[in-house]
Design brief:
heterodimer; A: about 625 residues; Rossmann fold; Elongation Factor Tu (Ef-tu), domain 3; 4 domains; six-stranded mixed β-sheet; about 30% helix; about 30% strand; B: about 300 residues; alpha/beta; four-stranded antiparallel beta barrel; 8 helices; 10 strands; multifunctional enzyme (chain A); kinase (chain A); EC 2.7.1.25 (chain A); GTP binding (chain A); sulfate adenylyltransferase (ATP) activity (chain A)
Chain lengths: ~625, ~300
């Protein structure tokens, strides 16, 4: 191939000029496994003459060696480039392909159909304008068809091309095609796409890909490529309000303080009034700086550096916005979340949320309902497993500027990151801020923690005992409290069993309930420390994430993690409450150390090896350490 | 306001990516291999932080087998932009005198590039490395994220890449882990050439045609760049008007016969080309899925 027919009288400059003015259509192919997505893209590249001779030669050789078409060209091999993909004949990760026609440039993301790799499909969809949804004519609408449609609508893909593929295997019957289209239309009606266009095709044979096929005389519409060339795309309206999330503060010397970022909507000119969120401070744009010289104005997608007329304290994550229509600011939202991790999402656990350049702590306070992608039915859920989609309430540890996702992808789309593994574990879209985030304010109280603790002549703190059941936490904590009490200290001991009789009697022992159990204990302890007390807690608290979450509620030096380190065999031998016996007999589910994990602390302030110290010796050591700490 | 042209949109996206890395990582570095993609990437980085200086160093993992004109060009760029350039040559490779002739392209590339890169990243403690790879170059590159996560051994696991939605890149790392970042992911070869022309970006003269001494070997035109190249019986360097579409180690990079002496000529030639850019790269043809394997082992 070549990008141009040979021997064309070529005016390069003219060609490039035209090439630059073409619109770019970003699209994905999606659908279930084995419905021919990779083959379709391969065919599209091949038919539109976008393959080089050496690539074609490689394809011919590969098709003979590992192809699934009996030695004939296997177009799927053009895109399934990973060894593991060829091994299994499936697509694992998104492949991005680029091609152009005289009308348009295309960026195609070929996304996997396999449910296990749904997260990669969402990755491709998040930047797409259009989705080609493939359906195997023999199979009709499947769960993955519905899931992918729903995910497309969730991330704002507006246009669907329903590619009813493998028509050759159903003898190009019009009735089969129409039945599938009807079934899909009735499902998709609730998803709010701007357009759904169905095309009968046979990707393997090239029917209706580039040219109209003689096999489907009853189909009067355009071929796939013709349709892709012609479809109109709505750009976001140009009067959208100005939004500029600050990415990096440029401070090369004392005289220059610029704010670098990308304009995600609207436009800005020198002299325009702006507002900085969340602080609400106002100023005017002094300069729009670029390496190619200052600009008078700039618009959407441009990566520029702004300087302001006033010296404001602005950092990464703040949003510079139009002062007439600034975004809202809140810390609690209703959001739709797609979960992408093997470990389930647990309400109450703390994650990181990244919206634009802003990263904050977040907890999912409530799963309002999970969505069944087959029926769109709302289901109750206590946690979210891999690939689950749910509407949730989320709570950030600080207020941020945002716009609802439907108005602005960049200001309302977010990812969730696990704090320990640092993996991206979820993605979501903000629907709206919860009313209570604007209505509940901190009440100012005159008597402070400092005043309360001075009256008690002590430095309040929280002693967080952790360890296996039977490790000796309660025994040692009890001894520590007795010693402190004898020394005239004001204390309170929160014991796991005792709390579950009252405050936490509604909670069980599932992972989700354990997280909530610890969250409540941490919050209660915080109030007690605020009251000036030395608080002791004795809970297994098996997960590092929750202990870390508890730690973050306290000032440095106020939270002391005490690891009562007892080997499982020893704890099991002691078995003071007979629980291990029950767990081993299968009568007790989710028991830490048996069928539920214990994540030992990595940097506990105090580490007690209970095989070497008696409970009294351990208590003495702890009391000495906490009274002498500084 | 007119919407941005295709190339200006790509430019803005790349600048956004480059800034994001600087804002989120501790100790980034830009891999500089002296070729046209490196030239574009460096140009974009200089733009991203203007008027500040480049806030990170450049790293050239040298194999000792680059074209002489490439070394000269590298020094000129360092001087022109006052760059902090670190050059690393794998000392073990030097001790064993690893070279593409006696050891073959695979061993040479593994020792001098892959192992050399890992040594340099570990030595300086870089946690993020920009690379100029594009998705249109090769099938396994088409599968790679913009932020490509690597474990403590610099391994890439294609089955376990971080989901990358919108423009939200997750650069968070545990100690020892690192990322490779590809700001040119969405650019094609044509975009690169157009941008070089549009922005007047300096490139190594080897990209332009000129009479050069070459021998035909295994179907490639190999330029005899210095007297380290052993000539096989019957081989005699011939002077031909050639240029390079891609630049690597000189014994592993085939030239193309050409009379293109201007950017305009080059673009015209590439628009009419019937073979892909990497066709001239010997290392891509070692074995099927070889780029993927190299990447899993830590090749950038």
């Amino acid at each position: 191939m070549s990008l141009l027919p040979e021997n064309t009288a070529l005016n390069v400059q003219e060609y490039l000029q035209k090439h630059q003015q073409k619109t770019t259509l970003r699209l994905i192919t999606c659908g279930s496994v084995d419905d021919g997505k990779s083959t379709l893209i391969g065919r599209l590249l091949y038919e539109s003459k976008q393959l080089f001779d050496d690539q074609l030669a490689t394809l011919e050789a590969d098709s003979k060696r590992v192809g699934t078409q009996g030695g004939a060209l296997d177009f799927a091999l053009l895109v399934d480039g990973l060894a593991a993909e060829r091994e299994q004949g499936i697509t694992i990760d998104v492949a991005y392909r680029y091609f152009s026609t005289d009308e348009r440039q295309f960026i195609i993301a070929d996304t996997p159909g396999h449910e296990q790799y749904t997260r990669n499909m969402v990755t491709g969809a998040s930047n797409a304008d259009l989705a080609i949804l493939l359906i195997d004519a023999r199979k009709g609408v499947l769960t993955q068809t519905r899931r992918h449609s729903f995910l497309c609508s969730l991330v704002g893909v507006k246009h669907i091309v329903l590619a009813v593929n493998k028509m050759d295997l159903v003898d190009y019957q019009q009735s089969v095609f129409e039945r599938i289209v009807e079934a899909y239309q009735s499902f998709a009606a609730q998803l709010g796409f701007a357009s759904v266009h169905a095309i009968p095709m046979a990707a393997l044979r090239g029917d209706n890909i580039i040219d109209a096929s003689k096999q489907t005389p009853w189909y009067k519409g355009p071929s796939l490529l013709t349709y892709l060339n012609r479809i109109k795309l709505e750009e976001q309206s140009s009067d959208a309000p100005f939004r500029f999330p600050v990415q990096w503060v440029n401070r090369p010397n004392l005289d220059f303080r610029g704010f670098a970022g990308t304009i995600v909507s609207g436009k800005i000119s020198v002299g325009d009034p702006i507002k900085v969120l969340p602080s609400g401070k106002q100023s005017r744009v002094a300069r729009i700086v670029t390496a190619d010289g200052d600009l008078a104005s700039a618009g959407k997608h441009q990566a520029v550096t702004l300087t302001l007329a006033d010296e404001l304290d602005i950092s990464r994550g703040d949003v510079i916005a139009s002062s007439e229509s600034p975004p809202a600011v809140a810390d609690q939202f209703e959001a739709t979340i797609v979960w992408m991790d093997e470990h389930p999402l647990l309400p109450g656990r703390q994650y990181l949320i990244k919206i634009g350049p802003n990263t904050s702590n977040v907890t999912i306070t409530d799963i309002k309902h999970q969505i069944n992608v087959n029926t769109m039915e709302h289901l109750a859920a206590k946690k979210l497993e891999l690939n689950a989609i749910a509407v949730c309430n989320i709570n950030l540890d600080r207020a941020i500027a945002f716009d609802p996702y439907l108005q602005n992808r960049d200001m309302g789309g977010f990812i969730l990151i696990d704090k320990l593994s640092n993996n991206t574990v979820g993605a979501g879209t903000i629907q709206f801020a919860l009313r209570r985030s604007q209505n509940i304010h901190w009440q100012h109280i005159d008597v402070s923690k400092k005043a309360r603790s001075e009256l008690k002549h002590q430095q309040p703190c929280l002693l967080w005992f952790t360890g296996l059941s039977g490790a000796g936490k309660s025994t040692i904590a009890n001894l520590v409290e007795k010693k402190l009490h004898a020394l005239g200290k004001h204390t309170y001991l929160l014991d796991g069993d005792n709390v579950r009789h009252g405050l936490n009697k509604d909670l069980g022992f599932t992972d989700a309930d354990r997280v909530e159990n610890i969250r409540r204990i941490a919050e209660v302890s915080k109030l007690m420390v605020d009251a000036g007390l030395i608080v002791l807690t004795a809970f297994i608290s098996p997960f590092r994430s929750e202990r870390r979450m508890a730690r973050q509620l306290f000032a440095d030096n106020e939270f002391l993690e005490i690891f009562i380190d007892t080997p499982l065999a020893v704890a099991e031998q002691r078995d003071p409450k007979g629980l291990y016996k029950k767990a081993r007999a299968g009568q007790l589910k989710n028991f830490t150390g048996i069928d539920s994990p214990y994540e030992a602390p990595e940097q506990a302030e105090i580490h007690i090896d209970s095989t070497k110290l008696s409970a009294t010796e351990a208590a003495d050591l702890i009391v000495e350490k906490i009274l002498n700490r500084r | 306001m007119m919407s941005l042209s295709h190339i200006r949109r790509l430019e803005a996206e790349s600048i956004h990516i480059i800034r994001e890395v600087v804002a989120e990582t501790r100790h980034p570095v830009m891999l500089y291999s002296i070729g046209k993609d490196s030239a574009v990437m460096l140009h974009l980085a200089l733009k991203a932080f203007y008027p500040a200086r480049l806030p990170f160093p450049l790293l050239h993992v040298d194999t000792r087998w680059k074209f002489r004109e490439m070394y000269a060009f590298r020094e000129e760029m360092v001087k022109r932009h006052d760059l902090d350039l670190r050059v690393h040559i794998n000392p073990e490779g030097v001790a064993q005198n690893i070279n593409p002739f006696t050891h073959g392209s695979s061993v040479h590339t593994d020792v001098m590039k892959t192992q050399g890169l890992k040594q340099a990243l570990n030595h300086y403690g870089f946690d993020a490395a920009f690379g100029g790879a594009r998705r249109d170059e090769e099938k396994s590159r088409a599968k790679e994220r913009v932020f490509s996560f690597r474990n403590g051994q610099h391994r890439w696991d294609p089955k376990n890449q971080r989901p990358e939605l919108w423009r939200l890149y997750n650069a968070r790392l545990n100690p020892g882990e690192s990322i490779r970042v590809f700001p040119l992911s969405n650019w094609t070869e044509l975009d690169i050439w157009q941008y070089i022309a549009l922005e007047n970006i300096p490139i190594v003269p080897l990209y332009f045609a000129k009479p050069r001494p070459v021998v035909k070997r295994h179907g490639s035109l190999i330029m005899v760049d210095d007297d380290r190249m052993p000539l096989e019986p019957g081989e005699k360097p011939e002077l031909k008007s050639v240029r390079f579409r891609t630049l690597g180690c000189y014994p592993l990079t085939g030239a193309v016969e050409s009379n293109a002496t201007t950017l305009n000529d080059i673009i015209q030639e590439m628009l009419l080309a019937r073979t892909s850019e990497r066709q001239g790269r010997v290392i891509d043809h070692d074995a099927s899925a070889s780029m993927e394997k190299k990447k899993q082992e830590g090749y950038f």
